[in-house]
Specification:
Strand content: 15-25%
Radius of gyration: 21 Å
Structural class: alpha/beta
CATH topology of the largest domain: UDP-N-acetylmuramoyl-L-alanine:D-glutamate ligase
Number of helices: 15
Strand order of the largest sheet: 4-3-2-5-1-6-7-8
């Protein structure tokens, strides 16, 4: 089997099942002799900030000289990065070997009442097997969608993290913050601590109720640990972290945006919890870990003069965070937008957030089954002017030819779109 054949097989699996559940994962894990039972796992759910939190925590653990696996989605540069160890994506050869192992199991499962596994279930099963075989110290699993019925939720973690609650994938997770919180809180396991930055009272009550039912300790930002913003500079953000047992010196992150200090704070609270649980953790390495953390497509500057920023803001909460960061770091600049989005997103609401700070917007599209036509987006746009260019490369070149050296271009709307257009800057 060639690499492209392996990818083709993965991508031609079903995306979703009419009835979600964990039966297919449990069946596969049983056949594979339960690799998930051999992992020191940390489970991360939330609407936004999962990838950044995973990256901060991975760096914090690596600075302690632990080996750390990460399972994330979607990928930005290359598929292999979804399954990584110490930031290094799985090799093509190892990916092929995993497909050859999982494929016959998927076919056998297809003959049962549960049917073949979905694409995400296949990738998750591959990740469990890979990390078990490599015998690493910790694995951080990011949920794909929701939490309660997510394929990663067969893991029994050391601790669980819920970054925040926002209205995304509402057709699948629910329309209210409480309904969405119920899905995210599904990752909470019996007597395993939970850390969160969730702020909505109704959503937090749902999480608290789940923790009580599982006899799991809940640590919340603002009560059990605090993140205090110091200032925004051209270098990034500086902040302080405080908990019952530890108060940091001033910390610095190159990840711009006040929302990023809360992601860093969650990671710090998590590693402090690991210290409390008996793992060997040395605090003197915290600063170097936080300052060296980066994550693609999160306010990522890929060009200067004019400044071009890639950001995968794909829901209203992400857009609010992005526009606040733009206002903090580029208050006196003219800002332009290149935008493409998928169906079932609150595009009108998102563009309304951009409207006060954007001097002009270009709408385009990308190769994805659910991608919106740029004319559909333009019809929803309150931004003047709103320009439609179907071809993303042509759109990008047109914009760059019309900007001055002092202008700022933000490219956003969908992580799939960002993954597509990022190749131009590589």
């Amino acid at each position: 089997m060639e690499y492209n054949d392996a990818l083709h097989w993965i991508h031609t699996r079903e995306k979703f099942k009419v009835k979600p559940g964990l039966k297919r994962m449990e069946w596969m894990m049983n056949k594979m002799e339960h690799p998930e039972h051999h992992l020191n796992a940390i489970h991360v759910a939330g609407t936004n900030g999962k990838g950044s939190t995973v990256s901060f925590l991975r760096n914090l653990l690596q600075e302690q000289e632990y080996s750390v696996g990460t399972f994330t989605s979607p990928y930005i540069v290359r598929f292999n990065e979804r399954i990584s160890i110490n930031g290094e994506p799985i090799s093509d050869y190892e990916l092929i070997e995993l497909v050859l192992t999982v494929k016959p199991l998927a076919e056998e499962l297809g003959k049962t009442v549960w049917g073949e596994p979905t694409e995400f279930e296949v990738i998750t099963a591959m990740a469990f097997l890979y990390f078990k075989e490599r015998g690493i110290d910790f694995v951080i699993f990011e949920t794909g969608l929701g939490g309660r019925y997510d394929s990663t939720n067969i893991v029994d973690p050391i601790l669980s993290i819920i970054t925040n609650i926002g209205k995304d994938h509402t057709s699948l997770l629910g329309e209210s913050y409480e309904e969405i919180a119920y899905q995210k809180a599904g990752i909470i396991k019996k007597e395993k601590p939970v850390l969160t930055c969730v702020k909505q009272v109704d959503a937090l009550n749902v999480i608290r109720k789940e923790c009580l039912s599982q006899d799991a300790d809940l640590l919340t930002e603002g009560k059990d640990f605090k993140v205090i913003h110091d200032e925004s500079t051209t270098r990034g953000e500086s902040f302080y972290f405080q908990s019952a047992d530890y108060s940091s010196a001033k910390l610095y992150t190159q990840m711009k945006g006040i929302h990023q200090i809360y992601n860093a704070g969650l990671a710090l609270a998590s590693i402090e919890m690991l210290k409390k649980l008996g793992y060997l953790i040395q605090r003197e390495f915290y600063q170097s870990a936080i300052s060296s953390t980066s994550w693609p497509a999160r306010f990522e500057v890929v060009q200067e003069e004019p400044t071009v920023i890639l950001d995968g803001a794909h829901n209203r909460e992400g857009t609010v965070a992005l526009t606040n960061t733009l206002k903090a770091h580029y208050p006196d600049k003219k800002i332009y937008l290149l935008y493409a989005a998928v169906q079932d997103k609150p595009v009108t609401e998102m563009l309304r957030e951009y409207e006060p700070i954007i001097s002009g917007a270009w709408f385009t599209t990308f190769s994805f089954p659910k991608a919106l036509h740029p004319r559909e987006i333009a019809e929803l746009s309150p931004i003047t002017p709103s320009i439609v260019i179907d071809d993303q490369q042509e759109a990008l070149k047109t914009i760059l030819n019309n900007l001055t050296r002092d202008d700022v271009l933000v490219i956003s709307g969908s992580l799939y779109f960002i993954s597509d257009i990022r190749k131009y800057f590589e």
